[in-house]
Amino acid sequence: MEESAKNRILVIEDDPHIAEGIELNLSLQQYDVKVARNGIDGLEAWKQWCPNLIVLDLMLPGIDGMQILKSIRLEDERLPILILSAKGDPSDKIDGLIERVDDYMTKPFNLEEFLLRIKRLLTRDLWQQEQGDSFAASQNNQKPYIFGENSIDFSSGMAECQAGSIQLTEQEIKLLKLFIVNKGKPLSRSKLLEIGWGYSKGTSTRTVDNYIVRLRRYFEKNPKKPTYFKSRRSLGYLFDHD
């Protein structure tokens, strides 16, 4: 299994027995496996280790699996992610599909089926990579996101806005995508920190407020009376436009 030996699989699972069992069986299939036991370590491993696939539990300490999924999808829409969770209600599966999970299995699970699903996801990802230039071209041809007199080209990271032409930072792009995905919905500071920065619940910081000031300076005609990036007392921030 020469090809599978090249694949790195990150398992984000807090139950030590389940994590050890998954690690052992994936290793026997010649995959390179890393285990993270909580959400914060999982996000860090994803950023540093660059896995080819993630096996993700939902009920995790620190940051739950759904927030991890949302955070990853803001930066990487292609990475195969398989949720493996004791939460088997249809609503949980629907939530996962809405956030663009690739597959969903419930615990307890059949090992042979699990391994086959892993292989299928990795095979699909390899096929996508082999599309090379055509896939990249389709990504680069995405239309700019327009609101008011502002335009954001996410393929280049450039924004044409009230402040002129701006080269957005990686974190600004991530935050803008988060607001756009949740257009018309208020987002709390804690939610923005969890998904946008990977901070655990309870973290106190003015980081979000500082970034909102920056976005208003870029995109609002009058930053002191924002039209798009609005404050909602006791709720957080809301992005909206016609």
Topology (elements, then pairings):
Elements: E1 8-12, H1 16-28, E2 32-36, H2 39-49, E3 53-56, H3 65-75, E4 81-85, H4 90-98, E5 103-106, H5 111-130, H6 133-140, E6 145-147, E7 150-153, E8 158-161, E9 164-167, H7 170-181, H8 189-197, H9 207-219, E10 229-232, E11 236-239
Parallel strand pairs: 1-2, 1-3, 3-4, 4-5
Antiparallel strand pairs: 6-7, 7-8, 8-9, 10-11
Helix pairs in contact: 2-3, 3-8, 7-8
Which features would summarize this protein structure in a list?
19% strand, 242 residues, 9 helices, five-stranded parallel beta sheet, Rossmann fold, alpha/beta, four-stranded antiparallel beta sheet, disordered N terminus, Arc Repressor Mutant, subunit A, 44% helix, 11 strands
Commentary on this structure:
The protein is of the alpha/beta class and 242 residues long. It folds into two domains: 132 residues, 3-Layer(aba) Sandwich (Rossmann fold), CATH 3.40.50; 98 residues, Winged helix-like DNA-binding domain superfamily/Winged helix DNA-binding domain (Arc Repressor Mutant, subunit A, Orthogonal Bundle). The chain is 44% helix and 19% strand. It is built from nine helices and eleven strands. Strands 2-1-3-4-5 form a five-stranded parallel beta sheet, sandwiched between helices. A four-stranded antiparallel beta sheet has the order 6-7-8-9, with no helix packed on it. Helix 3 links the parallel strand 3 and strand 4. Helix 3 packs across helix 8 and helix 7 packs across helix 8. The longest helix is centred in the middle third of the chain and has 20 residues. The protein is elongated. The N terminus is likely disordered.
